[in-house]
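Course assignment 3, question 2. Fill in each field.
Student: A.L.
Task: Predict the tertiary structure for the chain below.
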Amino acid sequence: MTLDPSPDLCPSARPQPAFDCQRCGQCCQGRGGTWLNFPQVKVLADFLALEPDQLIKTYLEKDKPARPIQEKGPIDQASREQTSREQALWTIGLGPEGFCLFFDLKEKSCLIHPVKPLSCQSWPFYHWLVTSQAGFLEAQSHCPGLEKLDYQTFSRAFEATGLKRPPRSLKKLVRPEKEIY
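Answer field:
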């Protein structure tokens, strides 16, 4: 399994001359936004040499319960639990300072950078930033990597990625079975 992000799924995997991350960690602070589905949980667990259940118990929080399973005949409890887990979403927990548990405050770096969630990889090309000048200005006030940009330059940088549009919901980034762009 490759750990490199796919440029087709991840805008930040492509060169982005208009965005220069300053490693401030502002995008790594606060609850939510770092959604993982079960395949991503498995990749992260492998990277950390943990079992998925250990990773879930230690570092993740349940964001969304699984959808009810549509039964088409008898289903055993183990199959039901496996299907439920595979349809759930988790978020990465926060440390006492309010930053992602995998953000190293001293080094100002992501400890899981090679396998960080797609929602993290996609920053700053989120729907509400690319399609809304007000959203962009709000993010710009918190993100030093956006400070020197104007909205038009930023929008053109997104257009240069070749993607049709950013996902409306970051949760779509963690649903690989669905087309996101």
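Instructor remarks: The longest strand covers residues 60-64. The beta strands are 35-36, 60-64, 89-92, 103-104, 109-110.
Grade: pending
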